[in-house]
């Protein structure tokens, strides 16, 4: 099954959050359903990191904050070395880094063609 | 609630302090503060020690118990306070509560960190563990990365340029040159800062603080008893403490440090003061962009205009609102657990008129901002002359 990038929608007030909280940031509700955030996210800001954390070999590591159409934002690695604010990206599943010799997987963001 | 006074203060030099371990530093700063208060013969009721990561850095826990043993403050109740890099200010806040509530009459607050005990990459990783474990840390997010992303937002939205970051660094290095306790005693030029190595585009090495060892301490008592110790007590007029969501991206506006806004408003309300009543400021400039953002969100400048104040020299030592006369985290150094206490020490010296070459002209009130994360946990103190 293909992995989808999901947020958490409060069953009481409808606010969608990422990452997950145990209580809603608006109404303190405690029940959530997972919802897809969509394909097209917009790049708000980014950095090219040259001082790398453990388990990432090749500088620079490009990190950014993206905003999904519904307004939810996420931070993550970008697969492009040429980021531009406002560009459209989509979440793709992949290897993020190694930590204590264990490979860590998660979503990165890839430019939409 | 009783009024609380700072009656003594002291600190170690900040820097790469070879041959001195964490307990040496905490003891040295504490004894200086006790000596400064003239409280050497007195019995202390409580001791609070701000420290972020002794367990991880120097393999020692329960440092407050170790400190009262080392300098004989027995049988004072002693505890370590941990709130990330705001451990120092949180320790001061605990001391304030202890005195204002009536529970304690004489309190020592110390803060210290032995950062250079570990390698740079180990420290970088430990500091990164402050970020959100699944939404930030595993993705490779570090504090410089967050600062860089905030900087770029500011550049896009408010026209901040790299030159403005360099100007803050130049100012803080110049101030540190006048501070014998500062880590970096090195002149910094705009050109030098702007040609230092890139660590997290658009952040260069010179737009970030160094890794330092150090400790600082203050002695607190009720203001009504302060004249037993000093004729220049400094009153803690207000404090504020607020938090926000952990991740940068989930903030209402990632370019706004809401916890700074809320904590500052609380502190001003408690002190019955406004931003224009403040004469001298110490900010948490672990990254130079933060000095600009904090100066706005604390209420000293309009949002998006902080860099213009730097440009006009408003925040210089001889400006209308000097910021970081000590050299700030950038040049005085940032031994994380010590920082919040050291900011208070600097303000006390400034208010008493004892800051030497970096003395701000006749300040009556000071403001300190200490971060316990990347802007998601902020402790503010407002101090004023108590004489
Ligand atoms: Zn809700």
What is the mean predicted local confidence, pLDDT of chain A? 94
Q: In DSSP terms, counting alpha (H) and pi (I) runs of 4 or more, how many helices of chain A? A: 0
Radius of gyration of chain A: 15 Å
Tell me the structural class of chain A: mainly beta
What name does CATH use for the topology of the largest domain in chain A?
OB fold (Dihydrolipoamide Acetyltransferase, E2P)
Query: What name goes with the CATH superfamily of the domain at 4-118 and 211-228 in chain B?
Result: Thiolase/Chalcone synthase
What would you say this structure looks like, in words?
The complex is a heterodimer of chains A (113) and B (387). With 113 residues, chain A is mainly beta. Chain A contains no helices and eight strands. Chain A starts with 5 loop residues before the first strand and ends with a strand. A five-stranded antiparallel beta sheet of chain A has the order 6-5-4-7-8, with no helix packed on it. A three-stranded antiparallel beta sheet of chain A has the order 2-1-3, with no helix packed on it. In chain A, a hairpin with a 5-residue loop joins strand 1 and strand 2 (16-17). Chain A folds into two domains: 1-36; 38-113, OB fold (Dihydrolipoamide Acetyltransferase, E2P), CATH 2.40.50. Chain B is α/β, with parallel strands linked by helices and 387 residues long. Chain B has helices at 22-37, 54-57, 63-70, 87-100, 120-128, 143-158, 162-177, 190-194, 258-271, 288-297, 306-311, 328-331, 336-352; strands at 4-11, 46-50, 77-81, 107-114, 198-201, 203-204, 213-222, 234-243, 280-282, 365-371, 377-385. Chain B has a nine-stranded mixed beta sheet, sandwiched between helices. A two-stranded antiparallel ribbon of chain B has the order 5-6. The interface between A and B is medium-sized, with 32 and 34 residues. Strand 4 of chain A pairs antiparallel with strand 5 (198-201) of chain B. The site of zinc ion has 8 residues of chain A, from loops.
